[in-house]
Amino acid sequence: QVQLVESGGGLVQAGGSLRLSCAASGRTFSMETMGWFRQAPGKEREFVATITWSGGRTNTDDSVKGRFTISRDNAKNTGYLQMNNLKPEDTAVYYCAAGTQLTLVPVTDTRRYNYWGQGTQVTVSS
To answer: In this structure, how many other beta carbons lie within 10 angstroms of the beta carbon of residue 72?
Structure first.
């Protein structure tokens, strides 16, 4: 089992920044990938960014590329999502997810991940 706890969400004005953290505990050695997804009211959960836990290879959705950066600190078992130049359309609940299985499911697909955090609200005002 892997437990994930997100933090760092909040209310920010457009153009501002936030850094989300995802603290992992439990069988963290089994993590292959950590991803960030978001879900706005009335919309499906969508991919934001992902990072391979050992190699640090990243993949970022085009909608946030150049503004959001995913990273991780293996020693602290923590992943991060640095969000700059935030826009009102970034408003959503942001979820951290961990995948522990080798699979052909794309990293952009929620089915790649078998553990999820509780989510943290990010609200960007115009």
So the answer is: 20
Which residues, other chains included, contact 110 with Cβ-Cβ below 8 Å and sequence gap of 6+? 37, 45, 47, 97
For residue 12, give both structure tokens: 């920010």
Output phi, psi for 25, to 5 deg.
Answer: -145, 170
Reply yes or no on whether the pLDDT at 29 is more than 90: no
Give residue for tokens 């942001």: 94
Any idea which residue has 């991803």 for tokens?
35
Positive or negative, the CA dihedral 37, 79, 10, 97 is positive
Close Cβ partners of 31 (under 8 Å, ≥ 6 residues apart):
2, 24, 53, 98, 99, 100
Distance of CA 58 to the CA centre of its chain: 11
- 53-103 pLDDT per residue, tens: 998 899 999 999 999 999 999 999 999 999 999 999 999 999 999 999 888
User: Rounded CA gap, 89 and 57, in Å?
Assistant: 26
